Automatic annotation (TrEMBL):
Top-level division of the source organism's lineage: Bacteria
Lineage of producing organism: Bacteria, Bacillati, Actinomycetota, Actinomycetes, Kitasatosporales
Keyword Kinase among record annotations: yes
Entry keywords, A to Z: ATP-binding, Kinase, Nucleotide-binding, Serine/threonine-protein kinase, Transferase
Ranges where the Histidine kinase/HSP90-like ATPase domain occurs: 41-148
Protein name (database record): ATP-binding protein
Length: 155
């Protein structure tokens, strides 16, 4: 079972779609930039996060927003644009999913806390995504492109 099957996400495709109101506040949002994605995730978490331990720490939110920025920027820069953006809350944190138009998958999952041995000139976005996420899943879509889904813990 993939992470997508275990954690259904609220859909934010470029074209508005119907989705359960319990998942995401407000009307469907077209996420086309990192700024729009950051704004949406901040609002989503602020309105929906409920935990016995209270609101997420400032550091958790900084990490989450950094991952959002990197995922969306990578989709725009390396994936031919954003085909969809999803967000959902779990007891552990926030599931993010970004769909793009490229079938090329990022080179290697580096694992938590591990940066690549050599910098190849493409930046540190993908290693940061892996470092700050407790789960990472990359799936090619039958219709073309791929979906990258991550779980970013909130404490």
């Amino acid at each position: 079972m993939t992470s997508m099957e275990r954690h259904p996400l609220a859909h934010h495709d470029l074209a508005p779609v119907e989705r359960p109101s319990a998942r995401s506040p407000g009307p469907p949002t077209a996420i086309t930039t990192a700024a729009a994605a950051r704004r949406h995730v901040r609002e989503f978490v602020g309105e929906r996060w409920r935990s016995p331990t209270g609101p997420p720490t400032e550091q958790s939110m900084i990490d989450l927003i950094l991952v959002v920025s990197e995922l969306v920027t990578n989709a725009v820069r390396h994936g031919g644009g954003i085909a969809g953006f999803d967000v959902a809350l779990t007891p552990e944190g926030v599931w993010l999913s970004v769909r793009d138009h490229s079938t090329a998958v990022p080179v290697g999952l580096h694992g938590p806390g591990v940066l690549p041995r050599a910098h190849e000139g493409n930046g540190y976005g993908w290693p940061l995504i892996n470092r700050l996420s407790s789960e990472v899943d990359v799936q090619r879509r039958a219709s073309g492109g791929k979906t990258i889904s991550v779980l970013v813990p909130l404490t």
